[in-house]
Amino acid sequence: QVQLVESGGGLVQPGGSLRLSCAVSGFTLDYYAIGWFRQAPGKEREGLLCISSMDGSTYYSDSVKGRFTISRDNAKNTVYLQMNNLNPDDTAVYYCRADVGRTYWGQGTQVTVSS
User: Fold this and answer.
1) Cα 10 to Cα 32: distance, rounded to the nearest angstrom
2) CA angle 25, 38, 51 (to 5 degrees)
């Protein structure tokens, strides 16, 4: 059974950093790309970054380029989203996604950027 579980969200002050984790199970992480998305209140879900099975990275959103990075540890079946220099516009629920036969989403983790 494919599962994705996000963690690491919380409350952070503007300019701060967080690292989110996406722990996967039910498939071999090595062979699949994983994407990070977010959804702010009243807005559509937005694609942020994706990491390919060959460890290449593709950036979806200019709003996070230079501030967010994606990485993977296949041995731990985990993909990470390092977020630096956070601002209030980054407040959202963050999701990871995998396409393994069909699309799977995690339950999301809340990130709130506020002073």
Assistant:
1) 28
2) 50
Rounded Cα gap, residues 27 and 15, in angstroms: 36
Phi, psi of 47 (to 5 degrees): -75, 135
Distance, in Å, from the CA atom of 79 to the CA atom of 22, rounded to the nearest integer, reads: 5
Give the whole-angstrom CA distance, residue 37 versus residue 26: 21
Q: How many CB atoms lie within 10 A of CB 92?
A: 22
Show the tokens assigned to 92.
């959202």
The residue whose two tokens read 């980054």 is 90
How does pLDDT run across 54-104, given as a tens digit for each residue? Answer: 767 777 788 898 999 999 998 999 999 999 999 999 999 999 999 999 999
Question: 9-25 as b/e, with b when 16 or more CB fall inside 10 Å?
Answer: beebeeeeebebbbbbe
Parallel/antiparallel/unpaired status of strands 10-12 and 109-113: parallel
Alpha helices in 22-96 (DSSP H): none
